[in-house]
Specification:
Two copies of one chain form a homodimer. With 335 residues, the first copy, chain A, is an alpha/beta fold. Chain A has three domains: 8-51, no CATH class; 63-162 and 294-322, 3-Layer(aba) Sandwich (Rossmann fold), CATH 3.40.50.2300; 164-292, Rossmann fold (3-Layer(aba) Sandwich), CATH 3.40.50. Chain A has 13 helices and twelve strands. Chain A has a six-stranded parallel sheet. In chain A, β1, α5 and β2 form a beta-alpha-beta unit. In chain A, α1 (8-15) crosses α3. The first copy, chain A, is elongated, with a radius of gyration of 26 Å. The N and C termini of chain A lie far apart (76 Å). The mean pLDDT of chain A is 94. The first copy, chain A, binds a DNA duplex (30 and 30 nucleotides) through α2 and α4. Chains A, B: Keywords: DNA-binding, Repressor, Transcription, Transcription regulation. Chains A, B: Pfam families: LacI, Peripla_BP_3. Chains A, B: This is LacI family DNA-binding transcriptional regulator. Chains A, B: InterPro entries: HTH_LacI (IPR000843), LacI/GalR-like_sensor (IPR046335), Lambda_DNA-bd_dom_sf (IPR010982), Peripla_BP_I (IPR028082).
DNA sequence: AAAGATTGATATATCGTTATATCAATTGTC
DNA sequence: GACAATTGATATAACGATATATCAATCTTT
């Protein structure tokens, strides 16, 4: 009703008590008689009082605001990771706000600095490709508990990842078992750690089975990029009968390319994706893929961050989740 | 190197000057000799000093932290809106952090309260379905400049929307011109404002052309939901030859359903989407849709918020962007 | 009934900034 | 050379909360 926004002081005045008393009532600490408690609560409700965490965190040092820095929030896999992490953290009374530097290292730098300026209490982070080590120093200097995921950039930082090599080895073996002899690897930005690991698994199986050197095509991470890459692959290597993809988005794009070229995914050419995003099961034909439980991954992330916040001296935690082959319609024996 | 994190005081000590002097140097205000300026900058760089905006905003009242509350960040249309708004705001020195209440009104309430607690300087917001009016009062009490978009819930709040009725009228007319007589409307959560407006445009054209009462099927907003809804529609109304969809995700799901039933979208049944997300042009067959420029929409949003922040007494601003019909492969004459 | 323990509240200092006022030293004016 | 204006810095208070110490009033204990 009246002027300025509600503060402890304005509530204290209305309730006829001191500021610290109101503070204690709001937080449920200290000794307060039931009578004054009611008076204070009433005044607070009346003014729609909401405590100012900036002031609180400055004084108390505690900060229940977490940042989540992830590239490409529109990727459904990422969205699921976010959802898992946020649910857990919110249930513990933290607020999670999301930043998306869109894999631009400069923008990421700016955002992380803003992040520090605004005094966050913790960070969940997929580092952009080419993140310089100084960025970690900066976070450490300002004492921000950090967990990276998907991309491991620093050995001194808690991390949650995927058993990438294991997963692509499973995928490649499966295709080889079906009888495929020319198996390509499609997609992923050239520099990413994740892609490097996945290609290792793919190449290990090729080598082990004597299927010759790999055919490896990088691409962006969306459907359009996957489609373009597959178009190019069909021209450059018409003998390929199976493709392991760096992600479901790329795989779905590749399927579109095949359909446009009159090739039925799963009959003419087999395609395996990675992630098991929702589209993978909805698409026609439904996508065979290496499924990761992104929600679980998000929860694990959040749990490690909470542990780190509560036990700062804990040794570095690293946790890898594995992926599971889900066979749908885009894989079959070679023609 | 040393203990605690860098502050104005620690920098001042190292540079041998007072705290206000350092503050002035960091902000480029006041009168400072070049000599002390250099001393201070050096000390600040040496300690990797980053100002604490919490303290700054408390004292100065200025707050360059903006919240963006949007449901379903994984929807590519939303992701583009976000990108447009964030780019503009960041270029003006604001930090934007994203919250996703996933259309849950309770979660939204909790998040907005946390939002206020943490003292944000502005809000871009797609209100969840069923947002109670008290939520607006709360924001007003705490003096947070707010712009809603897509869903208009309060007449007293700045807003950016889409000319929904106009767009679906265009889509429906186009289908009628092609010769369709049984045109259904598919998708959208029952309660949303957006859907209501879109159905108005659809029904207006049906009435005007004497095409009888509409056939209206609600559904969720993702592909799976669109697929299920189309499955049901095929059973319930086998005479339908064209479908106007509430969004591209629903439309793409509907196409999957048609393909699975052996019907070619654009030949057997025509489908028009809404939004023009990236998938719309990549999909096979490519989707005819009502295109909105989400990036523009995001920028407009940001601009209005900035105006509101700078001119709090400005009259309520409402801006509607129009959508454009993009004909691709999922529409054609009825069989 | 005197001494100590408990209860319910408050006074004060502090977190890291910025706004305002003040102040000494230098410069300019006539 | 006296007085005002400017320069370059600092002292102080405030933002809104919390931590710590303190304190009067009440309750135990023997």
């Amino acid at each position: 009703m009246s002027a300025g926004k509600p503060t402890l002081a304005s509530v204290a005045k209305e309730a006829g008590v001191s500021v610290p008393t109101v503070s204690q009532v709001m937080r449920g600490t200290g000794r307060i008689s039931e009578e004054t408690r009611q008076k204070v609560l009433e005044a607070a409700a009346n003014q729609r009082y909401v405590p100012d965490s900036r002031a609180a965190s400055m004084r108390s040092g505690e900060n229940r605001e977490i940042g989540l820095v992830i590239n490409q929030i529109s990727n459904p896999f990422n969205a699921e990771v976010i959802s898992g992490a946020v649910s857990l953290l919110e249930s513990e009374g933290y607020m999670v706000s999301i930043l998306d530097p869109r894999d631009d290292q400069v923008r990421q730098g700016r955002q992380l600095e803003a992040f520090i300026r605004h005094g966050r209490g913790g960070l969940l982070w997929v580092p952009a490709v080419d993140t310089p080590p100084e960025t970690f120093d900066l976070l450490r200097t300002h004492g921000i508990p950090t967990v990276t995921f998907l991309r491991r950039v620093s050995r001194n930082c808690d991390h949650v990842g995927i058993r990438n090599a294991e997963a692509t080895a499973t995928a490649t073996s499966y295709l080889a078992d079906l009888g495929h002899r020319r198996i390509a690897y499609l997609g992923g930005s050239l520099m990413t750690y994740v892609r490097k690991e996945r290609i290792e698994g793919y190449e290990a199986v090729l080598a082990q089975r004597g299927l010759g050197p790999g055919i490896i095509w990088p691409s962006g991470d969306d459907k359009r990029a996957g489609m373009d890459a597959m178009d190019a692959l069909l021209v450059g290597h018409p003998d390929v009968t199976a493709v392991v993809c760096n992600g479901d988005m790329v795989a779905l794009g590749a399927c579109y390319s095949l359909i446009r070229s009159g090739i039925q995914p799963g009959q003419g050419v087999s395609v395996i994706g990675f992630d098991d995003i929702e589209d993978a099961s909805v698409a026609v034909p439904a996508l065979t893929t290496m499924a990761v439980r992104p929600n679980k991954l998000g929860q694990k992330l959040a749990q490690i961050l909470l542990d780190r916040i509560r036990t700062p001296d804990m040794p570095v935690m690293v946790s890898d989740v594995s992926a599971e082959l889900i066979v749908r319609e885009t894989t079959g024996a070679p023609p």
